[in-house]
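FW: tagging you since you asked about this chain on Friday. Here's the raw sequence from the shared folder, copied in full. Didn't touch anything.
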Amino acid sequence: MNVEQMERFAKEIRYYTLKELNYMGYGHYGGSLSIVEALAVIYGKHLNASPEIKDDPERDYFVLSKGHGGPSLYATLFLKGYFPEEWLYTLNQNGTSLPSHPDRNKTPGVDMTTGSLGQGISAATGIALGNRIAKRNNYTYTIVGDGELNEGQCWEAIQMAAHQKLDHLIVFVDDNKKQLDGYTADISNPFDFVDKFSAFGFHAIRVDGNSVQAISEAITAAKELKGKPSVIVLDTIKGQGVTYIENMIDNHHLRPDDDTNEAIRTAIQQIGEELGVTV
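HL: got it, structure written out here
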């Protein structure tokens, strides 16, 4: 995909993320929306994976460590052809194949079950190490949350990845400045993620998390590096792409009131019109 195609793909992911959450009536809006552009770039251009090779060990792997962002991953997987649209509207319902947090035993295209924060990046590190031991040349991508990096387990994995020189591991930090209970700087100040990851031995860069071009260029640069893993810190906004949600103080998990529901329906309508699809 070129930049224009990735921008459209991001718009499609945001559209279907909003539709599935709106249908359910509540859910993790903020952190799902802030990773849309990253997912569009990873799945639209860089990830060597598809429904046809979903069981091929030589494929690339993706781990959504911040499992509460599952709705946007599900929208992405639907758009890539892993399952039909109807599945989106069973999100987090009894008997669904799309639980609140990703489950590799339930959802085609999900490489790792996640949701217990801190564990996904550990699993991704293990996957990358295992693939190197098996002499595979594939890549492992993982997205972690800025609040998730409060967990000490994350930094154990980060240190191990650097020690093992896992240059086929690419980590993304969704630095949307908020976590469940408020701003990250107020709860447990993370300071500068680029400085921290660099100190641990990573190649580290910060990019505009709303720019598919900047994200894609950072991935390309990471793949050219040898001897160390890479982290791409995404400068994002919680609720990214929907102004009403961006401006909410508490937008991690929403049970929308009438005004919020109306704003969400309006956003769906507007994005649908931009895409030329019927709402």
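FW: The longest helix spans residues 3-24.
HL: agreed, and Residues 3-275 form a domain with the Rossmann fold fold (CATH 3.40.50.970).
FW: great, closing this out.
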